[in-house]
Specification:
Helix content is 48%, strand content 11%. The chain has two domains: 168 residues, Rossmann fold (3-Layer(aba) Sandwich); 203 residues, Dehydroquinate synthase-like, alpha domain, CATH 1.20.1090.10. Strands 1-8-5-4-2-3 form a six-stranded parallel sheet, with helices on both faces. It has a two-stranded antiparallel sheet with strand order 6-7. By secondary structure, it is α/β, with parallel strands linked by helices. The two termini are 37 Å apart. It binds 5,6-dihydroxy-NADP and zinc ion. Zinc ion (ZN) binds next to helix 7.
């Protein structure tokens, strides 16, 4: 097991009715900016619950953060933060709203041009960001309990990420009741994103970190078992709760400790969102199977372990089990109605591999993956295999 440090300071308030408790978590004398998305919180009662909980606080609002939060929109929130002397941010939404809030937390006290934070990139250390909390409305990203974020810039077709230990939410409310109003398309996105987060931290080489591996496999199995229940059409509180907690646990830092991690699927996937606007989770389902086939030799031991422990495939050689594991992964995505080929999302896919290769080269991303050896030319081949 590799050496590691682990500190996750986010307080979780899990369960029905917990939104009311934010009145005690947000400092009484704070000037609060409540940040939300396109309006789903106004239709499902979450907005009213937050307003009721904070009726004793000074609260300003900034709505309209789009999916794949855009720099151009967030800059307006930054102006409001300065104008109103805001001291505390409250994100009420999914990964996009929470990520946008993390960017604002980092940018509020940053002296230079805010976009530099993403391009340099600048990490935000403890005490540097503006304090913030979250009320999660969409299980998927894990952003509610981690310190990373991803911001898009429409003008330049870029989607870039950064973070830092100063950007953990102070608290996050996880009330499974919010799942009631989530459309099926976003539920399958959440399942797929969380599933792939586990894979990015697991599908490398077999390791000696037995507990992390078993926890990772448990999250994968729980997501597989929960998927049909949260998609059945009848709201099931416990299934919603399991779905939510799986998504949080998939990317709160725990399973990546002591092991090597990949993250190349996300790097390539972000490009597909930047070029074509494809939902984040779907880009991962497009890239992951090709990534595992292309890197078969270095990943086959773990792929076989995945096939065996997660899908119960006991027969065959390591290679046969590994290939069966990739097929099972594709079947799982297809069972969620998620297509796994780029050409199923856009007719305009020719030339994408060149674009990705060029973007990675220009950013000097010359060695990605768990061994830092995946070159822009390798990314070219993987993206081409995903057409
Ligand atoms: O904007 P509103 O009206 O709220 O609608 C949203 C949005 O249209 C809707 N929604 C959210 N909660 C709902 C709901 N609709 C009905 N009922 C509810 N309870 O769902 C739509 C999608 O929301 P969004 O926040 O964009 O989805 P998600 O949580 O999947 O976030 C995606 C973003 O997070 C980034 C992605 O790249 C993408 O930009 N990620 C962030 C990560 C992190 N910070 O750790 C890791 C991930 O890998 C990912 O990259
Ligand atoms: Zn993701």
């Amino acid at each position: 097991m590799l050496n590691f440090e682990f500190k996750n300071p986010t307080k979780i308030l899990f369960g029905r009715g917990e939104i009311a408790k934010i009145s005690k978590e947000v400092p009484e004398d704070a000037n609060v900016l409540m940040i939300y998305g396109g309006g789903s919180i106004k239709n499902n009662g979450v907005y009213d619950q937050v307003k009721e909980a904070l009726k004793g606080h000074q609260v300003y609002e900034f709505g309209g953060v789009p999916a794949n939060p855009e720099y151009e929109v967030l800059i307006n929130a930054l102006d409001l933060i300065k104008e109103k002397d805001i001291t505390f941010l409250l994100a009420v939404g999914g990964g996009s709203v929470i990520d946008g809030t993390k960017f604002l937390s980092a940018a509020a006290n940053y002296e230079g041009e805010p976009w530099e934070i993403l391009t340099k990139p600048v990490r935000t250390f403890e005490g540097e960001g503006m304090p913030f909390g979250t009320v999660l409305t969409l299980p998927a990203t894990g952003s509610e309990m981690n310190s990373g974020y991803v911001i898009s810039r429409r003008e330049t077709n870029e989607k870039l990420s950064t973070g830092g230990p100063g950007l953990f939410p102070q608290f996050s409310v996880l009330d499974p009741e919010v799942v009631r109003s989530i459309p099926p398309r976003q539920i399958v996105n959440g399942l797929t994103d969380a599933y792939t987060h586990v894979l990015e931290q697991y599908m490398t080489a077999p390791s000696s970190a037995d507990l992390q591996e078993r926890i990772a496999e448990s999250i994968l199995i729980s997501l597989q078992e929960t998927a049909p229940k949260v998609l059945s059409g009848d709201f099931d509180y416990d299934a919603a709760g399991n779905f939510m907690w799986c998504c949080t646990m998939a990317l709160n830092g725990l399973i990546q400790k002591g092991v090597i991690t990949d993250w190349a699927v996300h790097a390539m996937g972000h490009e597909l969102t930047a070029y074509f606007g494809i939902d984040h989770a779907r880009t991962l389902a497009i890239i992951a199977p090709s990534h595992y086939r292309y890197n078969f030799e270095s990943k086959k031991g773990k792929l076989a372990q995945y096939a065996e422990r997660v899908w119960g495939i006991k027969d065959g050689t390591t290679e046969e089990k590994a290939e069966a594991g990739i097929r099972k992964l594709e079947e799982f995505f297809h069972s969620l109605n998620i297509q796994t080929r780029l050409s199923e999302y856009t007719e305009d896919y020719e030339g994408t591999a060149e674009r990705v290769e060029r973007a990675f080269t220009e950013r000097n991303w010359l060695g990605l993956g768990e061994y830092k050896k995946l070159t822009p030319q390798d990314a070219y081949k993987i993206v081409e295999m995903s057409y």
